[in-house]
Input
Amino acid sequence: MPMKLYAHPENYKTHKALVCARYVGLEIETPKGGAAEQTGKIPVLETDQGCIFSSTAIARYISRISRPMGLYGQNIYEGGMIDSWIEFCTHELEVPLCTWVLPVQGVFPEVPEATACAKEDVKKALNVLNNHLLHNTFMVGHSITLADISICCALVDGMKLVLDADLRKPFGNLMRWFNLCLAQPEFKAVLGEVKLCGAAGAGKADAKGKDKKEAAPKKEAAPKKEAAPKKE
Output
């Protein structure tokens, strides 16, 4: 019997749980309402033994279902490193990236000062990831773990909307890893094809769907008919 995940289907936090489920072979349904009423919040994962809430707790729970898959590492040390990167993702990456992306998505008005600070904080986080991935194919160990899933899913909206080609250019290691994750069938099944942001500012128009149509040319006024000559 499939578990039920009550969550916003397009939210990157929901995607984390769904990608994990693909890896461990867990069947999950995503209905609306229901179990969320027990806690007053979503996401909520409804299991045979009860409900689990909070996106990180849900992703961790699913990752531990199949030990051979290794989403939570191959030993205690790797499990600790995965937790470290999840914490980094939550506090050092997601917070500033959401501050930058959510106004572009129209969720709330932009505060220019906050956006400027967020951009710098995102760049610092990306630099940390890029340096780590210089000598590592994956975030932890030698295969995909919850650390990769969490960070990749958190980056998707930013990569689509605000992290343009010029900004991505210095982070070659990060982009190699990001594209590697997206190429995995488990990621593709949940995220689909991810179109990266092109020129600076291009994502904003796409997110809000406000591409302006060219104004239709005004019709020229019909020429006045000449008065018929009077008959003598």
